[in-house]
Amino acid sequence: MPSSKGPDHSRRKERSRQAILAAARALITEEAYENVTVEAIAARAGVGKQTIYRRWPSKSAVVFAAVLALSEDADGQSVALPDTGDLETDLKLVMRATVEEFADPAFDRLIRALTTEIANDDALAAEYREKLAQPLEEAKRARLRSAQEAGQVDADADLDLALEMLYAPLFQRWLHRSGPLTAAYADSLVDATLRAFGPPNRERGRRPLSDRAAVTGRRDRPP
Q1: Which domain holds residue 50?
Q2: Is residue 154 in some structural domain?
Q3: pLDDT higher than 80, residue 186
Q4: What is the reported pLDDT for 5?
Q5: 193 within a domain of the structure (yes/no)
Q6: CA nearest 123: which of 61, 174, 76?
Q7: Do residues 189 and 140 both lie within one domain?
Q8: For residue 22, what is the domain's CATH number?
Q9: How far is CA 133 from its chain centroid?
Q10: Is there a single domain that holds both residue 50 and residue 98?
Q11: Residue 6 lies in a domain
C-alpha cells in the first residue's frame, strides 16, 4: 500500500498551495480587500479553510505568501538582476519592469494589501524583511557592487544610499499616487542616480552648449 507521505502526496500539497495563492491573488484584484476572507480564498481554491490554517495562521500570512511566490522563478530561487556589463542598460531594464508592475492594477492592489498588513503586523513585517526585502536588496546591491568593481560606480559610493535614491522616489510616487509611473520616469531615476554615484570622470548630464544657450538666451563666455 503506497504511503500517504510519498511523492503523490507532496504533489497534491504543492498543487493545493499554488491553488490557494492563486485564489488569494485573484480575489484581492476583484474585491475590496476587507471583504477578502480566508473562507473566500478556500472556496475559490477548492479546499477547506482548515487546509489554509494548517499552512498559514492568518489572511495576512496568505497574502504575503502570494506575493513572495511572485518573486521566485520556477526553481523557487530569487531572481538576480541582469548583468550585461552595462549598468545603465541593466538598471533601466529593471526599473522599467518595476514601474510596469506597479502600474498594473492587479499588482497594485496586491502590493497595497500587503503594505497595509505589514504596517500593522510587526511579526509579518519582520518576515517580509527577512524573506523578500533583504534578498531583493542584496541582489540589487550585488549588481551595484559588480559595477563598482568595473569602474561604473564611484569606488567610495554608498551603495545603500544609491539604492534608496533609485527606488524610494518610485515607491513614494506609487504609494501617494502623486504622478504617472512611466518608462520615462524610470529612466530619469536611473540617470539621476548614476549622475550622483557614477565615477568622477562620468559625464554628469551637462547640456551641450547649444542647448544651454537656448535655455539661458546666451552663450557661455570663455573665462
Answers
A1: 12-58
A2: yes
A3: yes
A4: 61
A5: yes
A6: 61
A7: yes
A8: 1.10.10.60
A9: 8
A10: no
A11: no
Give the tens place of pLDDT for each residue, 65-77.
Answer: 999 998 765 454 5
What grid cell was written down for 161? 544610499
Placement of cell 500587503 in the chain: 114
**Residue 8 confidence (pLDDT):** 76
- Between the two ends of the chain, the Cα-to-Cα distance in Å is 93
Q: Within 10 Å of residue 54's Cβ, how many Cβ atoms?
A: 10
Average pLDDT over the chain reads 87
| Angle at 206 (CA atoms; ends 219, 179), nearest 5 degrees | 115
- Clarify whether residues 90 and 48 are in a common domain: no
Whole-prediction pTM value? Answer: 0.78
Smallest Cα–Cα separation from 53: which of 35, 34, 37? 37
Say how far apart CA 3 and CA 222 lie, in whole Å: 86
What DSSP line would sit under 140-170, residue for residue? HHHHHHHHHHTTSS-TT--HHHHHHHHHHHH
